[in-house]
Each structure stands twice: as C-alpha cells, then as structure tokens.
Amino acid sequence: MDTVLEATDLTKHYEDFSLRGVSLAIRAGSITGIFGPNAAGKSTLLRVLAGQAPAHQGSVQVFGSAYADAEQDLKNRIGYVPQEPVFYPDKTVQWLARFAAPYFARWDGAGFYKLLDEFKVNPLKKVKHLSGGQKKLLSIAMALSHEAELLILDEPTAGLDVVHRRALLDRLRAFVADGDKTVLAASHITDGLDELAEDIWFLDDGRVVAHEDKDDLLARWKWVHFKDGALPNAIEESLVRVKRLPFGSSGLTGDYLTLRGALAGPLASGDVKLDNATLEDVLLSFIKGA
Amino acid sequence: MDPILRRSSFYYVTSLFFYMSLMGRYMLTRDWPVFEILPLFVPIWILGAFFASESDECYAFLRMLPVPDRRVARTKFALILAAVAVQWLLMIGAALTRMDEGIAEPSTLVYVTVVCAFGLLVAAGYQIAVWRFGLSTMKPVLGVSVAAGIVMVIIHLVSLKRVETWPALSQLGVVEWLGGAPWISIAILVALALLVYRALMRVGIRVKAASEAHL
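^ Those are the sequences you sent over. The predicted structure of the assembly is below.
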C-alpha cells in the first residue's frame, strides 16, 4: 500500500521537551492513531507533520513532497486540526470562512455551512464566544471542507460531548471508506479513536515506543488471570502489571502467541483464564514498564 | 484583494488617514520648525500602526491555510513599505508646495527621506523581532520605543525653541550637503534603503519560517 506521509528521524527541541528521532510512515487509506500520555510529544509531532512547525533535524515527506518545496499544494491536500484551534477571536465564524475560502483550491462553502449546522455552531457567532468544543468543531469543519486527502487531527474528540464525538467518529470512518483518504490522529486512549485506528503508534517521552497493526497488537496482548501456583514460574515472571487479588492474580502478557501452547494445560483445567487487553492496558505497560 | 493584505492594511490605512489629517494641515499652514518636527513622527506613527496590526494578527490560523509562509511575510513587509512610501510622498508633496515660502528647502526633501528610511528599517527590524520572539515579548519594547520616540521629539521641539545652539537635524552639514543635489541624493538614499529593506525582508522570511514564537 502507498505511503502518504513519511517522517524520518525527526528531532525537535524545546526548553523542557524534545522530540527525539521519530520516524514513521502512514499508509494511504488508513486510520492511524498516535497514542501516548500527556507530554509524550504527540502534538509536537503532529505540528511538524502538518507543516505547522519546522523540525530541527529529520525530514517529512507528504504525498512525496517536502513542505519547503510544495507548502501551498500540501496544505491544500491536508486538513489539520490542532489541539487548541486558534482563530481571530473578534471575528465571526462566517467571516473566517470568507477569509479562508480564497486560499483553498477546492473550498466547499455549502459543505462547510452544512457541517456547522450539523455541529450546532452558529456561523454568526464571534469566535471568542464559542466554547472550546465548538472551536474544535469549527476547526474540524474547516478541515473537512476543502476536499483534503489527509486529515491530521490532534485530539479531535477532546472537549466534545458524546453526541458530537460519535458523529465525528462516524464521519472519519466515512472519510476513509473509499480507500484513498487517510486519517492520522493523536489522542488519549479512551476517547473512541482507539476503536477506529487500524495502525497504532505509541509515543512516550518524545520517542516512538511501539508501532503495530492494532489487530496484531491486541492478538498478542492478553490479561492472564490465574490461581496462585497454576502458572509455570517462567511465565508468571514474564507477566507485567501483575495484580495480586484475594482469589488469585492477574497479569498482562504481550507474548500470548508464543505462550499459547504452554497455557493450554492450565486453561483447560480452569486454573487460568484469559481476557482481551485494551490499547490502554498495552500503553500503560509501555509507559510504566514491567 | 488578498484577504491577508486587506485585513492587515486596515491599521496602516487608518493610521495614515489620522496622521495626514492631523499633521497634513500643519505641514501646509505652519512655519518653521514644522518640517523639522513632523517627519520625526513618521517612525513613531509607523510603529504604532505596525503594533496595532500585529496585536490583531493570528499567525497560527494563517499557518494552517494553504498560503506559503513567505507570502505572508512579504505581504507584511509590503504593507510597511507602502505605508512609509505614502507618508513620504505626501510629506515631499507638502514640502514642495512650501518651497516658495522658504518654509521648506531642498535639504528638507533629503531630511524627510532620511527619516522615512529610518522609520522603514526600524519597522522592518521590529517585524523580524516579533516573528522571532513573539508579540508578547516585544510588546513592552515596542511600547517603550514609541513612548521614547514621542518624548525625544518633544524634547527636540522644546530645545529648538529655547536653546539657541540646539542643532536642527534638517540643517546638519551632511543633510545640507546632500540637499545640494536633492533628487540625486534622494534617489541614492531610496535605493540604499530599499536594498537594506530587501535584505531584511529575506531575513524576516527565514526567521518567520523557523520560528513558532509568533504563533
């Protein structure tokens, strides 16, 4: 499958934070999720990938071009939603649309107002009178209204109520449905994007700590619930995030596919049970370690 | 008209309108030292318009639009240049109309050009600084610069009237000498100022692209 975005060895330094040698590739037609704790570097990475901030080292190629060579074309093909969207505060939403429209090669004014209507954002309201969630929705509406081929979304569901969050997730699903559009979203793990994402990148402390297809990742990460003494020592010692409970213990393994054979006996005897892990479980094990 | 240009030009046009309606009348009616003092307000006025324009700007939003960063930078520099050029033209026009009365001399034309060039380059410097360090950092510096400029002009005006030996800038030896062939001097001064301005604009484009402080 084609790669729409490729970053190589990205480094960016701030006074109290550094993005350190991040390389990633985003497949066309996919929904890719970048997950990580606060201050992991997700927003910084997305800003660099969206051409909003230059990296100190490394390169970004989007649709085969660098921002330095094709900034205008690339920004026409990308819809970027920042973590905290910024607009002219004293202007109305309608004014913003009129201001921005001439710069886009393919601005869909009718589509924009339809989205505003769906998102319950009043176009006659001044930006400074919009809530944080409404500003986010306005930013999403703009990103979806110029026929972008790649959406780069920084915590797009943050600040949204459950109705709008669900509506947005449905829209993103529809956006990639025809297979030639791509979504890259950074998020905390529990806001619904983890359901959508097919390709998962975990970021912590400015580095990529894991990258895997979601199905493969979840196939090998399992919760193992066991009665004391039921597991061979080597397996028990390999578990992470082990919790001792009154009636046994639970631990997480990221190596289920290898251990499957060894667990067959205890599973059959009923002394061991398995549960699926969530992405949050997996992320926590990467962040906190074993 | 380009929306960024239209929006950014508002403060420059407004300030120009107020400047000329306030000062223009004086230039056409008052006697010495009107052409010594009023040109000195040009850098202050330009900085004021620049400050207002930047305070109302939203570069983070502009960077999200498919507009090359260098185009935004060039627009901002073009506006400063246009604002200074219009003020220069109007003052030169006013000075020319008052040559016969002896209120303005050939050296006045040179003096006006020098002050406008100074204002142009100072504003360009501040534009670069705002992109590099951010408006919140530069706000106090700009405020102090404008206030200091006003105080210095007032001191200069009062001293001209009260201190006999106080030098008039428009009558300094070098200005008088350049005034010997004013149009040649002006052409050279303008060319030099534009060359430096162009170099500053190139620096500004690079600084703006590399900086996030102004976003």
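Residues 58 and 215 of chain B are 7 Å apart (CA to CA). Chain B has a mean pLDDT of 95.

Shout if you want it in another format.
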